[in-house]
Amino acid sequence: MLSTPNQPISTLTVAELEALITEIVRRVLREEMHQPARENGRTMSEELLATFGAWEDDRSADEIVAEIYASRTTSSPKDLSPQFLA
Description:
This protein is mainly α. The chain contains 4 helices and no strands. Helix content is 49%, strand content 0%.
């Protein structure tokens, strides 16, 4: 894959980066397929995915939008880091 194991990523060609990403994905998938179930019978990935779901809120859309706008702040250029002013 890589010509040297400690080769900086910035020196890789597009083809080498694609090969590296492909190898990483293959390894993760291979590990995931062999991951043992936990006490509750689910893998760690299944537990993570179970935390995703629909937004639950009793407020109306207008109330949620009003809260978002009320929580926004503005900053002047003097408050920004120099890196953002370049």
